[in-house]
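Table S7 (text form). Paired inputs.
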Amino acid sequence: MLEGKLERYEETKRGVTIILENGNAAKFAADLERFFAAEGYRLEDGTPQNGTYARGSGGAFAITGAFSSRMKLKVQVIDESGKTRLLVNKGMSGLWGGLIGKSKVTNEFSRVALKIKSLLAS
């Protein structure tokens, strides 16, 4: 599903940075869009190379907070001299849902980031 040779995976305060040794940023972004669709996300804003993927309803989130399945991830796919840099950041903090909401956002973000990493490492 995701093609590319993983060179580096780095966790930051804001999210993760993934460097691929080779690849085409536009093709990788299209593959990533299919990956997110399979995970239940849709491109809510922007483009596959620089956009926000989300799942769940914003309206339901406003009403139910932590009990909603709302999640947003900000994604950038950047071509850098024959390498591809992928930046994935949380698109929401989860604070609206208190400790439960924050924990849900952190857990889902980690799940998605580690799944991307494992697909690229194999």
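Next pair, protein 2 of 2.
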Amino acid sequence: MNLVKSRPLMVDERHFMCRVFHLFFASFSLFCVLAIGACATVDASKQPATIGAPALEPTKENSTNVKSGAPALNAAAIVAQQNHRVAGLEKFATRGSAELRWHDEEGDHFEQAQVDLAWRNGGEQISLRADKMGERLAWAGANAKQWWLFEPKREPSRLWLGARNTPVPDSLLPFAGPDALLELLAAKPWPEKISLSQDRPGTFWADFDRPARGSWVKTRVQVETNTGFPSHIWLLDAKGNVLAESELSEPVMADMNHLPMADRPMVASKITLKSVSNVGVWQIFWDEPGAREDRLKDRLFDLEVIRGVMRPAEVIDVDKDQPKR
């Protein structure tokens, strides 16, 4: 593929890019939760233990499993600390680059894209765009009631619509549950009731239930003891199987000029997302995460405005299950 200048993609390239971004959004949770019913989950008990993390076994409800010899952990204080950080992310915008590496029968592959992510009202409104060499590859978004997903490289181009927690069937870019994206980015408030465990001083683990969204019903978070920053997050099904995971590193203070310095949240500038089917690994590098107003304009969250720009050839409402051209 010629990467020197922007040009219309040929038919074979469109097929290739659709495949690439099927992998992208299958691992990037905004379009993933996780390919419910389409992707096989990974049995955590059969996986090698992730470096720096405990084996991901189903957690016991109503338990606080703090092992002897570890400093006492105050669940209420930990929840308050996490939720104070998340409160600073009521609105957020960033852009950066994303790199996908995967292996198939044809060998090793590598692709890149530019991504823009923004949300308002604590993630109630979300906009996520992916571009390559000036061409729009996908644009997804959500409000409190529904989500939308534009696939301009599909033939014919398509707009998917659905209720906020409804997955897209048979999509090149599987999409379900923008709340999964927020969870994997450590941007959702924690519930009051959590279970804690610790087997060494430097880190501890928090487990808690989430309202069922497809197969995702539980979350496990590895937290750095000294900083309180979440460094590894797993989304689990009811049996403890891993549906998706993220590694959050290189934390920086978000540029939130509307907040006092003490309230400005730390966010990861490097994120690694792993696909539930092990088809690829994405690394995302954010530039200047913050809340710049020029990245939070109303038009980015307005479905009708975006629809006028993207002009999809067909529209599929998954609740009505009827394509409209």
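The chain has a mean pLDDT of 78.
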